[in-house]
Design goal:
The complex is a heterodimer of chains A (128) and B (227). Chain A is built from 4 helices and 4 strands. Chain A is of the alpha/beta class. Chain B is α/β, with parallel strands linked by helices and 227 residues long. Chain B folds into 2 domains: 118 residues, Response regulator (Rossmann fold, 3-Layer(aba) Sandwich); 67 residues, no CATH class. A 4-stranded parallel sheet of chain B has the order 3-2-4-5, with helices on both faces. A 3-stranded antiparallel sheet of chain B has the order 1-6-7. Classes of the chains: A alpha/beta (128), B alpha/beta (227).
């Protein structure tokens, strides 16, 4: 389809979004990613029955953890689509990029720069 | 098993404010099974603390280790070579584990990261229900396997009381009456006579710390003296 989507997204492939752990999402933010989103299959169509619903619960949990420490929970999101929906994938990528741009950079990077350390990181996406 | 809940993050963060190098210690037994203080929960808490302290411009150095059981000195020994380099210890074990850790390292401040909640069962992943108050006077044999101390709002050993209401407890219509459940269970088993047994009141030995020495075992000092 040769669809274009923002180049600042780094895709991490997993066999099923049920494999995505709370620590994977948290670690991405901890290491400086401005946002993370999980892209899973449509709800009700999981090959493993509940992989994507579990992923959504974990995403919700990570959003709560981020709010708890004073960061925007909305830096972590979950999207659902079917594997045949390339244009939707690209649309979600653009939507997330715009959303994160509005939120601004990961505040941890700013904090690290203030304390004299180098910051860095990219927006990360997890797709299944 | 012992069920615990993680303390609110703010409370944990507040306790650690004066320290810059802390070792977070998980426990691989009850609290790991009830998803409150095992290896994974240690990793999540450390990640949160690390980020929160960076945001506060007061970075903290965190170590992580999970022992098999914090309520057993044998398993704490492995920590002896580690704790020296830390200013404080953050334990994710139950209250018993935290106290054993504090006893082994009396010079180190030890902080609890979880609230020990009850002795309970695993209804489903992440869903736990209280079943035992460790009263030291088990009557489950007479009550059809339903604990009146835990399940009855008044903890009545001989019930029901006048507040039983068509299967519900007077405190809440959604709270089943333990003695109604006991009646139903004993009736099912054809053992209703059992409900007439009068049980002496619980002595509540747990007002003072209790000790159990199993048959065939002695306190170490008695064993050494050859008593």
């Amino acid at each position: 389809m040769r669809l274009e989507y923002p180049s600042n997204i780094r895709i991490i492939r997993v066999p099923c979004t049920g494999k995505v752990d709370v620590m994977h999402l948290l670690r991405a933010i901890q290491k400086g990613a401005d946002g993370v989103y999980v892209v899973g299959c449509l709800e009700g169509t999981c090959h493993y029955n509940e992989g994507n619903t579990r992923a959504r619960e974990r995403v919700e949990y990570v959003r709560m953890l981020l709010e708890e420490i004073g960061m925007e929970g909305d830096r972590v999101r979950m999207y659902n689509l079917s594997s045949g929906e390339g244009p939707t994938f690209a649309a979600y990528a653009r939507e997330m990029t715009e959303h994160i741009k509005k939120l601004g950079p990961n505040p941890l990077k700013t904090a690290e720069q203030n304390s004299g350390k180098k910051g860095g990181g990219k927006r990360e996406a997890q797709a299944a | 098993m012992i069920i615990a809940k993680r303390k609110p993050f703010e409370e944990i963060k507040e306790m650690l404010t004066p320290y810059n190098k802390v070792l977070t210690l998980g426990c691989g037994t009850c609290v790991a099974v009830c998803l409150a203080g095992g290896e994974k929960e240690v990793a999540v808490l450390n990640a949160e603390l690390d980020m929160a302290r960076k945001l506060d411009n007061n970075p903290i150095e965190l170590g992580a280790f999970t022992v098999e059981r914090q309520c057993d000195m044998e398993y704490l020994e492995v920590l002896d070579s580690m704790v020296g380099e830390y200013e404080a210890l953050l334990s994710m074990a139950c209250g018993a584990g935290v106290q054993f850790l504090a006893e082994r390292y009396p010079e180190k401040p030890v902080f609890p990261a979880v609230d020990t909640t009850f002795i309970g069962v695993n209804r489903a992943v992440g869903w736990y229900e209280e079943r035992c108050r460790s009263c030291s006077s088990c009557v489950l044999g007479m009550t059809g396997g339903i604990c009146p101390v835990t399940m009855c709002a008044k903890g009545l050993f001989n019930g029901p009381c006048g507040g039983t209401n068509k299967g519900s407890c007077e405190i809440d219509k959604d709270q089943p009456c333990a003695w109604y459940l006991i009646y139903e269970r004993l009736s099912l088993q054809g053992r209703l006579d059992s409900i007439k047994n009068i049980s002496p009141a619980v002595e509540w030995q747990n007002q003072a710390p209790r000790t159990v020495i199993q048959p065939g075992y002695k306190k170490p000092d008695e064993a050494e003296a050859g008593n």
